[in-house]
Amino acid sequence: MVMTQEQLKDALIKTNIVDAKKFDELVSLAHQSDMSLEDLLIEKDIISDENLGLLISDSLKIPFVSLAKIIIPEDVFHIIPEKLARKYKVIPFARDEHGVKLAMTDPKNTEIPLMVAQKTGQSVSQYYGTDRDIYNALRMYRRDLQVSFDELMHLYTKNNALAEAPISKIVDLIITHAYEDKASDIHIEPQDKLSLVRFRIDGILHDMLYLPKLYHEQ
């Protein structure tokens, strides 16, 4: 994380989101649950991902961007190769006559902005983006799991009943995407009408796929 644990603690206490005792309890719970502290804060609805990003960016004195709220032009997105974007968790999200804008989880990284400046011949502005937000944006590099699942089901249900879906193919699809995304574990959580598939990547849980609930027991 770009902030130290103590810096995050001070910021959360200063904004009256938690007190010192609650923060220490959350740190302990995060260790016990093998989760990142940021992920736990979001999972417990203590703070939203966007508000956590705003809190961190304010502490770092750099602008914040929510990639989920903007449309990234494909030519801008591909300024940085996928391998580097994933390694450094950075997304180019805008470009105009004033330069290129980068969303980064670690704005202290000077290597990538320099590379982009040399490649484009333009100035580079750095913005803070959260791990979750940047991860979701990185999915533009490859086929989305939900899209792959929907296409599989469309092909299968042309001549078959929904209840007779190829469970083995669905499982293979989920495992393949989890492997490609370097997920440490897969969570399948039943909800009211659907089951939610989530991947844990770098200690953070990401919503990946919604399945018809009838497949959960299968």
Low-confidence stretches: none
Determine Rg (CA atoms, Å): 20 Å
Helix count, per DSSP?
10
**Count of domain modules:** 3
The strand line-up of the biggest sheet is: 1-2-3
Write down the secondary-structure element order: HHHHHHEEHEHHHEEE
What is the CATH top level name of the largest domain? Alpha Beta
Q: What percent of residues adopt helix (DSSP H or I)? A: 40-55%
| Major pleated sheet | 3 strands, mixed
CATH names the topology of the largest domain as Beta-Lactamase
Overall geometric form:
flat
In percent terms, what proportion of residues is strand? 15-25%
Structural class: alpha+beta
Q: Count of DSSP E strands?
A: 6
Architecture of the largest domain, CATH level 2?
A: 2-Layer Sandwich
- Euclidean distance between termini CA atoms: 38 Å
Mean pLDDT over the residues:
87
Which SSEs are present, and which pair or pack?
Elements: H1 5-14, H2 20-33, H3 37-43, H4 49-60, H5 74-77, H6 82-88, E1 90-96, E2 99-104, H7 111-120, E3 124-128, H8 131-138, H9 145-156, H10 167-180, E4 185-190, E5 194-201, E6 204-212
Parallel strand pairs: 2-3
Antiparallel strand pairs: 1-2, 4-5, 5-6
Helix pairs in contact: 9-10
What are the salient characteristics of this protein?
3-stranded mixed sheet; Beta-Lactamase; alpha+beta; flat; single chain; 3-stranded antiparallel sheet; 10 helices; GMP Synthetase, Chain A, domain 3
Brief summary of the model shown:
With 218 residues, this protein is α+β, with helices and mostly antiparallel strands. The protein is built from ten helices and six strands; from the N terminus they run ααααααββαβαααβββ. It has three domains: 43 residues, no CATH class; 73 residues, 2-Layer Sandwich (GMP Synthetase, Chain A, domain 3); 74 residues, Beta-Lactamase, CATH 3.30.450.
